[in-house]
Design goal:
Aminopeptidase, nine-stranded mixed sheet, eight-stranded mixed sheet, 13 helices, about 30% helix, elongated
Length: about 500
């Protein structure tokens, strides 16, 4: 057996993960997670694996038949199997049998299983024989908890999942498991950022935590405070942050691969630590969900740290603007004019369209690094939810790169969908007093209008994609798959998949 994550670092601390090629004999308190499929007569059938003998497999299938289990997708059935050295067996359904299993099917099955095991500290699974990395990711993310602000009155009485043994005969099982741990840890770290309340995560604190995380991964870190932002001409970030007593920040994280002629990728993420809407104040109902308005920044920070931990042969620079959008006597007003970094003047018609203002500053700064590719992501528009719902990000940008990002996002299970940027929408952003207005006067195509605004600040020749994750970054409904309530970590896995693809294919 081999342990794959023995080092403790800042950010989320995942369960201890061990890879084994045989079923250990000392798992008396553990739960064994076994995948099953729908067999003949709609009866659950254990997916063949080298770890369970015929007797154990037969015991499981007889018990499942007795309980009426069918092996349907994500169906859970817990049984006792006396011949196995575990406390119980949890069968998780995969649906009809297949020759090959998509990674996200395994990931979601593992997540559903993990979410059902409150009170269980040790898990072993044969799901990993189908896909090691996906099983590890699903189990860690499904077991994710955020309990920092619970007292003894409501905190869980158990430690949660602390040890995970994945069974696999694959030659690269340890490498795959380690990658799964790193990916899941990055997503969980982004979740932690999003779930931390704005009383405790404001621009200064967010920057401090991002710096610590970056330093632990060997990144170069630069943090600009309010005075530096004012002196540097970052009018969008300064303007949005004017209403808060807690000043804005701009965090720059740089990962240098050391590879000659490596492609350079810029990442930009919206870091509004709380969004009241400013003077254009939001309705009180559900305003507390705006603790999630820094979900883009959280994902970007997690992604660049993950790239460093995985030592990707691509250079990455993250530019992360952070501000708190508050109404006060010092807040910017509807009708004010500000100057974005780089010189473009903006008539602020709606202070609740603040994300694009801080992103524009960051995009211009990021383009000064001459990247080959630029990805920005933000919980940007309510229009994204109207158009695509709660789980589907919208991706806009240069056509070829937009489609590439969308395809990779769908492959990893985050399911971004390509959306257009019609040229005529730029006319809706005309201002009578400045170069641009920050919103259009119409309700139509709000997601694309925001994308058209951001496009104005992307340098010529840069392949660009904008991911609107207003809905997908924060789950306000019930848990599903490996996703619980609150922060989801979307689109961390999408951006990492894109970085891997660029590293491999340019």
């Amino acid at each position: 057996m081999a342990r794959v994550n023995a080092v403790s670092t800042p950010g989320y601390q995942s369960p201890a993960v061990t890879v084994a090629s045989v079923l250990p004999s000392d798992l008396d308190a553990a739960v064994l997670i076994v995948p099953v499929v729908t067999g003949e007569n709609d009866e659950a059938k254990v997916v063949a694996n080298p770890f369970l003998d015929a007797e154990a497999t037969g015991e499981i299938e007889v018990s499942l038949k007795t309980l009426g289990a069918k092996g349907s997708t994500e169906q859970l059935t817990r049984v006792l199997v006396p011949s196995l050295p575990v406390a119980s067996v949890l069968a998780v359904g995969l649906g009809k049998d297949r020759d090959e299993w998509p990674a996200d099917v395994i990931r979601r099955a593992a997540g559903v299983a993990a979410r059902s095991l409150n009170g269980t500290e040790t898990v072993v699974t044969t799901l990993s024989e189908l896909d090691v990395a996906a099983a590890v990711e699903g189990l860690i993310l499904g077991a994710y908890r955020f309990t920092e602000f619970r007292s003894a009155k409501t905190a869980p009485k158990d430690a949660g999942l602390t040890a995970l043994t994945v069974l696999s005969t694959a030659d690269d099982a340890e490498t795959a498991a380690a990658r799964g741990v790193d990916v899941a840890t990055a997503v969980a770290t982004a979740r932690d950022f999003v779930n931390t309340p704005p009383s405790h995560l404001f621009p200064g604190e967010f920057a401090k935590r991002a710096k610590a995380l970056g330093k632990s991964a060997g990144l170069e870190v630069e943090v600009l405070g309010k005075k530096e932002l004012e002196d540097g001409g970052y009018g969008g970030i300064v303007g949005v942050g004017k209403g808060s007593s807690r000043g804005p920040r701009l965090v720059r994280l740089t990962y240098r691969s050391g590879k000659k002629n490596a492609k350079k990728v810029a990442l930009v993420g919206k870091g509004i630590t709380f969004d009241t809407g400013g003077i254009s104040i939001k309705p009180a109902a559900n305003m507390h969900h705006m603790t999630s308005d820094m979900g883009g920044a959280a994902a970007v920070i997690a992604t660049i740290v993950l790239a460093a931990r995985q030592q990707l042969p691509v250079d990455v620079i993250a530019t992360v603007p952070m501000a708190e959008n508050m109404p006060s006597s010092t807040a910017q007003r509807p009708g004010d004019v500000l100057t974005q970094y780089g010189g473009t003047t903006i008539e602020v018609l709606n202070t609740d369209a603040e994300g694009r203002l801080i992103l524009a500053d960051a995009i211009v700064r990021a383009c000064e690094d001459n990247p080959d590719y630029l990805i920005d992501t933000a919980t940007l528009t309510g229009a994204q939810l109207v158009a695509l719902g709660l789980r589907t990000p919208g991706v806009m940008g240069t056509d070829e790169f937009r489609d590439r990002v969308a395809k990779l996002s769908q492959e990893v299970g985050e399911n971004a969908w390509p959306m257009p940027l019609p040229e005529e929408l730029k006319d809706d952003l005309k201002s009578t007093v400045a170069d641009l207005a920050n919103v259009s006067g119409a309700r139509n195509a709000g997601m694309s209008v925001a994308g058209v605004y951001l496009r104005e600040f992307v340098a010529d020749g840069v392949q660009w994609a904008h991911l609107d994750v207003a809905g997908p970054a924060y789950n306000t409904g019930g848990a599903w798959g490996y996703t619980g309530k609150g922060g989801t970590g979307v689109p961390t896995r999408t951006m990492f998949a894109v970085l891997e693809d660029i590293a491999a294919n340019g």
